[in-house]
């Protein structure tokens, strides 16, 4: 599948690191470094604009290395880019560590995953069918 993209950066287009990769790295497109203090957040621009076909979304997800090594993650993970959005892709990053973190131009800051989705219609009923789990909530399917 081909998706239209406008790249207003000097960086290469997002690409898959391996043949089995689900996500492509997004890079910061910023004029000056952005320093995030502990618990501070910022919208970091990417300089990328995309045109998705109807029935698809782009999911902005954290980079595991950035989160594990630096405590920096995507605040609204996964962020959703709808098929009718034509603006610049921005990434809401938050610093959950106790240390300052500086974002530089070209730094890999998030992953982009393209996914198909369905539109549904609701069927209102007075009760639902039984299941093995029933009304068990968080953690109700796990074992110790």
Task: Give an overview of the whole structure.
With 144 residues, this protein is mainly beta. The protein has one domain (4-116): Deoxyuridine triphosphatase (dUTPase) (Deoxyuridine 5'-Triphosphate Nucleotidohydrolase, Chain A, Distorted Sandwich), CATH 2.70.40.10. It has 1 helix and 11 strands; from the N terminus they run E-E-E-E-E-E-H-E-E-E-E-E. The strands form 4 sheets. It has a 4-stranded antiparallel beta sheet with strand order 2-11-6-8, with no helix packed on it. It has a 3-stranded antiparallel beta sheet with strand order 4-9-7. The chain has a two-stranded antiparallel sheet with strand order 1-5.
**Overall mean pLDDT:** 95
Uncertain spans, ≥5 residues at pLDDT below 50?
none
**CATH topological fold name:** Deoxyuridine 5'-Triphosphate Nucleotidohydrolase, Chain A
* End-to-end separation: 43 Å
Secondary structure category: mainly beta
Q: How helical, in percent, are the residues?
A: under 10%
Q: State which percent range the strand residues make up.
A: 25-35%
Total helical elements: 1
CATH superfamily descriptor = Deoxyuridine triphosphatase (dUTPase)
> How would you characterize the largest beta sheet?
4 strands, antiparallel
Main-sheet strand order equals 2-11-6-8
CATH C-level: Mainly Beta
* Gyration radius, in Å: 19 Å
Strand and helix order: EEEEEEHEEEEE
- Secondary structure: number of strands: 11
The figure for the number of domains is: 1
The gross shape turns out to be globular
CATH architectural designation: Distorted Sandwich
């Amino acid at each position: 599948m081909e998706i239209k993209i406008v790249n207003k950066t000097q960086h290469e287009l997002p690409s898959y690191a391996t043949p089995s990769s689900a996500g492509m790295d997004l890079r910061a497109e910023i004029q000056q470094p952005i320093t995030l203090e502990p618990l501070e957040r910022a919208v970091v621009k990417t300089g990328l604009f995309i045109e998705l076909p109807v029935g698809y979304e782009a999911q902005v997800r954290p980079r595991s290395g950035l989160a594990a090594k630096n405590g920096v993650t995507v605040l609204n993970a996964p962020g959703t880019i709808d098929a009718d959005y034509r603006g610049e892709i921005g990434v809401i990053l938050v610093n959950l560590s106790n240390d300052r973190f500086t974002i530089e131009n070209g730094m890999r800051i998030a992953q982009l995953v393209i996914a198909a989705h369905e539109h549904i219609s609701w069927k209102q009923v007075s009760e639902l069918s039984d299941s093995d789990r029933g009304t068990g909530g968080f953690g109700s399917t796990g074992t110790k």
